[in-house]
Input
Amino acid sequence: MANQDDIFKKVISHAKEYGYIFQSSEIYDGLSAVYDYGQNGVELKKNIREYWWKAMVQLNDNIVGIDAAILMHPTTWKASGHVDAFNDPLIDNKDSKKRYRADVLVEDHVAKIEGKIEKEVKKAAKRFGDSFDKDQFLSTNPRVLDYQSKADSILKRLGKSLENEDLADVKALIEELEIVCPVSGSKNWTDVKQFNLMFGTKLGASADTATDLYLRPETAQGIFVNFLNVQKTGRMKIPFGIAQTGKAFRNEIVARQFIFRMREFEQMEMQYFIKPGTQKEWYETWKEKRMNWHLSLGMGEDNYRFHDHEKLAHYADAAADIEFRFPFGFKELEGIHSRTDFDLANHEKYSGKKLQYFDPELNESYVPYVLETSIGLDRMFLAVFSNSLEEEQLENNTSRVVLKLPAVLAPTKVAVLPLLRKDGLPEIAQKLVDELKWNFSVVYDEKDAVGRRYRRQDAVGTPFCVTIDHQTLEDETVTIRHRDSMEQERIPLTEVASTVSKAVDLKEWLQKL
Ligand code: ATP
Output
């Protein structure tokens, strides 16, 4: 089996080759950790956004959406804590001159230990066959227990020293674990320093009157400052939510792993306003709801896990990540945060405006607590894309590259292919395209042998191919080919729309929630 690096390289090159993702300003050698979405990428990204938006806003009658500006009053970022606390601990290797996030170096070390656990599990599963009980093995095997306790104690210590801002201890930990620079291989590290991640910019024409602004590092604050606007104009009653998707910017220290960590990216966030004291229940509810949303896409239960935070952000009283198995291991895909009244209370303080809710049942006003769900759209894109890409060995000693995207998310739903470029077949195919395009995205392809056209559509992730051949002229039936099974069946021309519809309809997928 190919190793993780090879798989990840294939993901990146496939994304480029099939018009999903390009490096930004590539003709100028690119801009580090900034990417553009191509003709297929934009569709996949839009479909993921829509899948999230419909599940969040359309299916919850107490959740509404907004679209706030990227530029906000600079005091916003003082109130939110970003000016003072939106820092990452960085460390430089003196030999390679490469800069790293100190916490990520430690986390990567822990991931290696976890990799060893996975290896033990695989070995044991092979040895014990059907009688293998994974949970029992994990809780009793001495070697696994030893690895697990090492991993836990490292993370605990990291969490504690970050929380206490004890950067010297973070460095000490890196030294004790004998972590080496992946580039130079040396342990020659500088001290750990804090680095603010916000991008600054200026508002106004002349240098002396210009105001310093920031590009928003998260979309959440646009929701908080509009809390009362929405609550009043929408006559919302607690509990209620406000959802938003949009760009966010972070001057990440180590931007790598393709679109996993970008400097300009898109978030999909929902802030749920609740009565103080009810945060524990809502935290559990939203953890479950969000996990179900992920599972509804059918990308494999084993690929997700929760990770509870050891180190809580300055605003949170509980936080968990939904982690996904990316080609480089389990990493954060989404965060669920119990934010208390930190944000609204601070905006009250800094703006001098009341941000309270009058609860008609209690007959009193209070600053609501907030439960947040926050997912990176680009990270979700990477999860979907990397999980879908497969190289399959076929029976006749050939192989095919297929992108098994969940059909509801695929950029193009059907390709219509006339078997030959004559005998009236292209005309029938074009007529079918004109009919189907009202419902979903369709492509017409008449170039090359039909087998090659199938492979092209497999590689780009189109769930259905419909072929028009001479039999169509006789009995108005077509061949419909299913991407994943490669099965072909003969159906009436008039049933193409309904067959495809059933497989790609949002409702069919979201009803699994
Ligand atoms: P990380 O620990 O990976 O830096 P974070 O905990 O800072 O992420 P949050 O501030 O909770 O992330 O942001 C919520 C979501 O936004 C994350 O779960 C992730 O999906 C996405 N996200 C955050 N930073 C980036 C980035 N630089 N590029 C792409 N997506 C990101």
